[in-house]
Amino acid sequence: MSYSTSEPESRTTSADFRPRHGFQTNDPVLQTIAAKVDAGKRLSFEDGVALYRSGDILAIGWMANAVRERMHGDIAYFNVNRHINPTNVCVASCRLCAFGRKKGEAGTYTMALEEAWETAGSGLTEAVTEFHIVGGLHPDLPFEYFEDLVRGLKVRFPKVHIKAFTMVEVAFLAKRGKMTIEETLVRMKEAGVDSLPGGGAEIFADRVRHIICDHKIDGGEWLETARTAHRIGLKSNATMLYGHVENDEDRVDHMLRLREVQDDTGGFQTFIPLAFHPDNTALAHIPKTTGMMDLKQIAIGRLLLDNFPHIKSYWQMVSPEMAQISLRFGADDIDGTVIEEKIYHDAGATTPQGMRRADLVRLITEAGRVPFERDTLYRAVTRSEDTFTVAV
Ligand code: V47
Question: Model-level pTM?
Answer without folding.
Answer: 0.94
